[in-house]
Amino acid sequence: MTALNADRSLESRQGVILTLPVLAATKIYGGSLVAIDANGYAQPAADTTGLKVVGVAKEQVDNSNGASGDVTVKIERGMFSFVGAALTIADRGKTVYVADDQTVQLAATANKIPAGTLIDIDGATKAWVFVPFNIAEGQADSVAADVATIVIDFNSLLAKLRSAGLMGTD
Asked: Does residue 33 lie within any of the structural domains?
């Protein structure tokens, strides 16, 4: 390779959306937690050995009649609401685990599949979870530290909005 001697066209990705191949005989619903298996194929997140949550489906895709990789799903990372089981505000900043493709819980499930980090809750059953891409091994500790910072910043901003009368307390 040689150094540039003129401008070049720069390609980039924002790092918010990924496109992944879908497992054979699989349907993924929009808004669901998505996991990949050891072969890198996307499927609905579940408490199943070997799965790793990688994001949330932007749209429904149906590969029910196809082979692995025949269709792709767009997934995104970020903070999303899911059904929460037995969570309290004291649990903010903790890892939540996959119960199914729309439900998270604090107690580690049988296969301990992390869904992300609990950022906040609304009532007894609505959990706001930061879901990272988490494709690489060993990324969980780094993500947990980043999310802990996000939680602190979020709570500080929330307190400021409430004290300024711009946001209610419920």
From this structure: yes
- Is this structure's pTM higher than 0.85? no
Q: Residue 77 is part of which domain span?
A: 17-163
Residue 9 domain-assigned? Answer: no
* Any domain includes 45: yes
Smallest Cα–Cα separation from 124: which of 150, 91, 158? Answer: 91
Q: How far from 51 is each of 81, 106, 112, 139, CA to CA, in Å?
A: 21, 18, 10, 15
**pLDDT tens for the chain, residues 1 to 170:** 788 888 888 776 666 788 999 999 999 999 999 999 999 999 999 999 999 999 999 999 999 999 999 999 999 988 999 999 888 889 999 999 999 999 999 988 899 899 999 999 998 789 999 998 765 444 444 455 556 666 667 777 778 888 888 877 66
